[in-house]
Amino acid sequence: MIKKFENKIWLSSPTMHGDELKYVTEAYETNWMSTVGKNISEVERLISEKVGCKHAVALSAGTAALHLAMKLAGVKIGDHVFCSDMTFAATVNPVVYEGGIPIFIDTEYDTWNMDPLALEKAFEIYPEVKVVVLVHLYGTPGKIDEIKAICDKNGAIIIEDAAESLGATYKGKETGTFGNYNVISFNGNKIITGSSGGMLLTDSEEAANKVRKWSTQARENAPWYQHEETGYNYRMSNVIAGVVRGQIPYLEEHIQQKKAIYERYKEGFKDLPVTMNPYDEENSEPNFWLSCMIINPEAMCQQVRGEQDSLYISEKGKSCPTEILETLASYNAEGRPIWKPMHMQPIYRMNPFITKDGNGRARTNAYIEGQSLDVGMDIFNRGLCLPSDNKMTKEEQDIIIEVIKECFK
Q: Per-residue confidence at 250, pLDDT binned at 50, 70, 90?
């Protein structure tokens, strides 16, 4: 009989090493407790060197960085913006902050990221679009070359949401360097953390300086507080930067630990009708932030989800995300559904959604037999995020694997 975990197994919790406290204490003892200080400048320097971009601006959150990226991109009221569909709402909400209208681009099965075929179709329908927001889901790089080629052909710029993919590479180059304006996050559950915080990355000195100005209330160069444009209180605190500064040296270690978790799940599930979240092994190396799995269609038991509740019927030899997540929770282990695609969210249900076949809304026809392929919805229905905490022991992970195996019996 499998016993419940005495200590909770988390999806992905912060992993502290001690150096963080040293730099936070330094901020305290030198009295640099606001949005200026050595920790901030060091974090900007270290990340720009690590990622390979010319400028990094430390901000209060990845969402703040995305918002200022929209301003840099010139998004205005009524502008359409193409966005990855299967992502967290923070990717998309900043478009709306500036009055833009997100158009959601369907997902592909190879990396669970934006489908270049759907993006190409979107440009045929909306040729005026000049901004594309690309996400690397769960730390896995998308099809960057194809997407960049399509954007270049249509004169569109890329805002790269690398919030989840710090340390991941595509053809040997770090994510966070492929767009005109790029974003990373140091949220509490990310690969390294500051408890909060984020960064805007760019090769443009002018763009970096604009962000530094906007993020500190857009103060003009005058002896008094002079303001000629709207500003924001978005700069990173020197205290938070101390935590990030202490985390940076451990990024590669965390990635190695996360990859080991992914590989153990892959080996442990080899006899189950499931596959792990995929990636392009030839061209990319994820940071393996979260390990996920997707159940084969024929092995799915009946499951239905409402806006807040879900139900399933247990079947021999089959399972579903709801059953597995509830079972993990009963053993004191945390899993999570796949990000619910943005086009399925109540707030965005009237926004356009484009698949590789064109308009993804209202695709079925009562009088003509056929099917409507919605990849994001399918992955959401059949997939789930597994406990991926890098402090989880091999023995604990083995128990989680056994718990999941039991769900299919």
A: very high
Which has the closest alpha carbon to 103: 355, 374, 346, 373? 355
Residues 370-395: pLDDT tens digits? 777 899 999 999 999 999 999 999 99
What is the number of residues in the chain? 409
* Amino acid (one-letter) located at 171: K
Which pLDDT value is given to residue 371?
A: 73
By the 10 Å C-beta count (0-12 exposed, 13-18 middle, 19+ buried), 362 is classed as exposed
Helix (H) or strand (E) holding 381: helix 375-382
Task: Kindly tell me if the per-residue pLDDT of 327 is higher than 80.
Answer: yes
* Nearest alpha-carbon partner for 240 in 44, 12, 11: 44
**Rounded to two decimals, what is the model's pTM?**
0.96
Can you tell me the distance from the alpha carbon of 9 to that of 225, in angstroms, rounded to the nearest whole number?
50
Q: What is the DSSP string of 49-64?
A: HHHT-SEEEEESBHHH
CA distance 343 to 350: 8
Q: Where are the beta strands (DSSP E) in 153-283?
A: 157-161, 169-170, 173-174, 181-185, 198-202, 274-276
In whole angstroms, give the CA distance from residue 62 to residue 52.
Answer: 18
Q: For residue 232, give Cα distances in angstroms to 69, 96, 217.
A: 13, 16, 5
Instruction: Tell me which DSSP letter residue 227 carries.
Output: B
* Residue in 197, 181, 213, 173 with CA at minimum distance from that of residue 70: 181
